Amino acid sequence: MKRHSTFSLLIVLIIGILLTACGPTTQTAELPAGDRVQTAVAATVAAQNPDIAAAADPEPTEFEPDSELLALSTTDEGVAASEQASVVEEPTTNVVAAPTKTATNAPTEAPTSAPQPTQAAAEEDEIAQAAQTAPEIGGAGAGLYVTWVDKGNVWLWGDDETEATQVTTTGDAWEAKISPSGQFIAYIANVQNEAPELWVVDTATADAQQILDYDTLFTLPDVDTTDVFFMSISEMNWVPNSDTLTFSTALTYQFGGRPNNDLYAFDFPDGSIEPIFKAGEGGQITFAPDGKKMAISTSGDYAEEPGLISIANVDGSDLQAGLLAYKSVLTYSEYAYHAKPVWSSDSSTLWVAIPPSDPLGEEAAPTNVWQIDVATGTALPAGQFNAAPFFGGEVSIAPDIGKVAYEIEDPNEINNRILHIANIDGTEDEVVAAGQVGFQSWAPESDNFIFANMLSGDLQVGSTSGDIQAMAQQTSTDRILSLDWVNAEKFIFATGDYGDWELRLGDLAGNSFRIATPTDDYFIFDYTVLDQ
Prior knowledge:
Blueprint: H1 50-56, E1 69-70, E2 88-89, E3 119-120, H2 134-138, E4 144-150, E5 153-158, E6 163-166, E7 173-178, E8 184-191, E9 195-202, E10 208-212, H3 214-217, E11 230-238, E12 244-252, E13 257-259, E14 263-267, E15 274-277, E16 284-287, E17 293-298, E18 307-313, E19 320-326, E20 335-336, E21 342-343, E22 349-354, E23 367-373, E24 379-385, E25 396-397, E26 403-409, E27 417-423, E28 430-435, E29 437-442, E30 448-453, E31 459-463, E32 468-470, E33 482-485, E34 490-497, E35 500-507, E36 512-516, E37 525-529
Parallel strand pairs: 2-20
Antiparallel strand pairs: 1-19, 3-6, 4-5, 4-37, 5-6, 7-8, 8-9, 9-10, 11-12, 12-13, 12-14, 14-15, 16-17, 17-18, 18-19, 21-22, 22-23, 23-24, 25-26, 26-27, 27-28, 29-30, 30-31, 31-32, 33-34, 34-35, 35-36
C-alpha cells in the first residue's frame, strides 16, 4: 500500500511576500498553518522574462562542500539534547490552530455503529460535464480515502462513493489522520477546557478507542513539567505499511514553549503506548517509504550545538546518531530550523538540502545537498546551489531524487525571484520562470511540478521536459488555494473562504469533483491510497 504524507490546509490570502525582509516569511495571525504541499498554494506564475532570466542565471561553480557541514561517524550517543525553553519548534504542515468553536466533552461510551451519511458531496461543478461522478475522476475502487474534521466531527470519503460519511458525533475532534490501510483514523480531541486527548476510530464500525488522556501526558517518561502552562500532542503520524501510530509532545510555558523531542508508538488494535525516544532523544521524524527506518532531524542551537540528521529503525533500535552534522541555521525569529530529509523510493538513501547557517550573511553561501547511505551510514556531498534565503522557498528535491527546484533573487528587480530546475548534482540547470514566483510542489512521479504567482494567485504546471502551461480551471469562480498530489495526474485541493470551503478531487485536464463543503473557519485533511 502507498501512504502519502499528511497535508494540512492553509488558506493563503497574502497577496505578496516581502522577499527582502530580514526574517522568515510567516503566516498572518488569521491564517491556518499550511504539509504536504509544504506551504499552501497562494498562487500563479508571473510572466516569464527571458532577458531577466538570462541575466540572473548563476555562473556554474566547482562544487566544494561547505566547511560548516561535517559528516560524522556513527556514535552511541543520543541524537540531541532537548531545546531551550525559549525556542519553539518550526511551524510544520502538521500543526494547525484548532477551530474557534468550543469543543464539547467526550462521551463515556463510543458509538457502536457507523452513522449514516448526512453531508453530500453537493451538485456537479458548473464547468464539469453534466454526467461527471466521483469514479470518473478517481476511478471506482482506486483506493483513495480522504478524512477531515468539520464542526468537531471526523468525516470520511472514498473515491467509490459520491457522499461523505460522518464517523464521529462527539463534536470535540480537531485534527484527524487516516492509517495506510484505511482501517483506522486517529484524531486529537479537545476536551475538559481544551485539554487534548488522543483517540482512534475504526472506519468500518465507528467504534472509538481512547489512546491517551490529558492527565497521562504528564506521566510520560522524562518529561519535565515544571512551570508548564499547557502540554500538547504533536507530530501525530502513521508508520507506512502498518497500523502503528506515533506521536510526540510539546510544552507551553507562560512565555514561549518548546518541543519535547520525544516519540511514542501504539500498535493497533491491541497494543499499548511504548516509548521510542524519551524527552530530548528525538526530533522531527521522517519515515522511510517501506516503514522500516526513520530519519531524525534536530535543529541544534545557533552558535552552540549543530543540527543533526540521524537514522534509526522505527522502534528506535540501531540508532545511527549524527550521520550528518551542520551548523545550526539562524532563522531571525523564534522558531528553530529543522532540515527536511527526503527518502529514495527504495528506502536505501536519504537526501537533504542544508541552507547556510546565516541566510542573510554578508557573503552569500550556497545550499548544500547531501546523500546519506542507509547501509553504511556514509554522508557524501551531492550538489550545491546558490539559492535565495530558505525562508522565501527552500531547495526542493524531487521524489525520484533526479532533480531539484530552487529560486534565486533577481538582481535586476527587487522582490522578484527566478525559478530554476536542475539535476541534483547541479548540471543541466534551466530557468523556468521569473517574477514574483514561488515553487510549490513536485508531482509524485517527478515529471511535473507546480509553481505560482505570489500576487495573482494563479498556478502554472511545469514539466521537466520544459513545457509550461496554466493550471486548467477547476471551478467556475474560486481559484485553487491549496493542492496535494494523489498521483501524476490527480490531486486533492480546496477552494473557498473561512466557513465556506469546498474540498475537491481534480485532474490536470480541468475535471473536478466536489468531495465535501466543510463549514469550520479552518480545516485539515489527510488521505491514503491503497495499492491495487
